[in-house]
Design brief:
single chain; alpha/beta; six-stranded parallel β-sheet; 14 helices; 9 strands; 13% strand; elongated; binds nicotinamide-adenine-dinucleotide
Length: 298
């Protein structure tokens, strides 16, 4: 039976690892947080006392960590994954991190004799719990095929995006579309309000017209038209404004490094920066931009 190590058992990693346990894999988990480890043990996982214990003697090692520096540390520390995993272990990093770090860590893994994939996800905590995440995967085709059966236990859509780093590239390009389109939809509903046009009327028209997009039809930021949207539960996340800001900053970092022209991506990053810096809205769903444009800061 395939054995799996899982490092980073937080809001996303916890339920993802639990789904692997549910699928019948033997999963050994590690997290610096004792609470995260205890929740994982309750779900039937084996607790590792150290990072090395989770990385040694497994067929596949998965990481789900906050950001690039954590990934670098976990893989490249002297007692990290590259030093302690046995040869032949397939390494899969599911964290959302900058493309540059993803490629750098992949190169170090290759040099140490490991196959590695970057496999960030979309779908949020709900998708992680339900096992319906989308995985965007960068790395060699053979490694992707090896990973696929395991990723399918945590997700519904698994896409090979090309060589190392391309999973991260796909993730930040997608989320740049999302951030920019959410602001556009919020601005339109804000303007409609000022002009005396009902939110429901604008929704009925735009959802069937050229303004149609995911931010409008699935996540409408004006309360009312889409009952399941966070706007109908006072913008409880969902996907927080802080997380959107993180991804928009990663997109800008990649745009600068590659010389891409992304003026609206830059504006979106600046506007979400102002929203998050303004007070109490950073932990709310990113569609809270609607409230921010109306002048609220908490
Ligand atoms: P989280 O903070 O809840 O979980 C991260 C976990 O990593 C924490 O439990 C933390 O203790 C652990 N950790 C940190 N450093 C560690 C180390 N050195 N060794 C072991 N464990 C360590 O974050 P999350 O919401 O689970 O997000 C994880 C990643 O997924 C992020 O990169 C995020 O951008 C991405 N993501 C999150 C969502 C979401 O909706 N939450 C959606 C898509 C992608």
């Amino acid at each position: 039976m395939t054995t799996i190590g899982f490092i980073g058992l937080g809001n996303m990693g916890g339920p993802m690892a639990a789904n692997l346990v549910k699928a019948g894999y033997e999963v050994t988990g590690y997290d610096v947080s004792g609470r995260a480890l205890a929740v994982f043990a309750e779900a039937g996982g084996r607790q590792a006392a150290t990072l090395a214990q989770a990385a040694e003697n497994v067929d596949i090692l998965i990481t789900m960590l906050p950001a690039g520096p954590h990934v670098k540390l976990v893989y490249q520390d002297e007692n990290g994954v590259l030093a302690r995993a046995r040869k032949g272990t397939l390494l899969i990093d599911c964290s959302t991190i900058d493309v540059e770090t993803a490629r750098e860590v992949n190169k170090a893994a290759s040099a140490a004799g490991f196959a590695m994939l970057d496999a960030p996800v979309s779908g949020g905590v709900g998708g992680a719990s339900a096992g319906t995440l989308t995985f965007m995967v960068g790395g060699e085709a053979a490694a992707f095929e090896r990973a696929r059966p395991v990723l399918e236990k945590m997700g519904k859509t698994i896409v090979h995006a090309g060589p190392a780093g391309n999973g991260q590239a796909a993730k930040i390009c997608n989320n740049m579309i999302l951030g920019v389109s959410m602001i556009a939809v919020c601005e339109a509903f804000h303007l409609a309000e000022k002009l005396g046009l009902e939110a429901q009327t604008l929704f009925d028209i735009s959802s069937k017209s050229s303004g149609q997009c995911w931010s409008l039809t699935n996540y409408c930021p004006a309360p009312g038209p889409v009952p399941a949207a966070p706007s109908n539960r006072d913008y409880k996340p969902g996907f927080t404004a802080e997380m959107m800001l993180k991804d928009l900053k990663l997109a800008q970092q990649a745009a600068h490094a590659s010389g891409a022209t992304t003026p609206l991506g830059a504006e979106a990053a600046a506007l979400y920066g102002l929203l998050v810096g303004s007070g109490g809205l950073g932990g709310a769903d990113f569609s809270v931009m609607m409230k921010y444009l109306r002048g609220a800061t908490d």
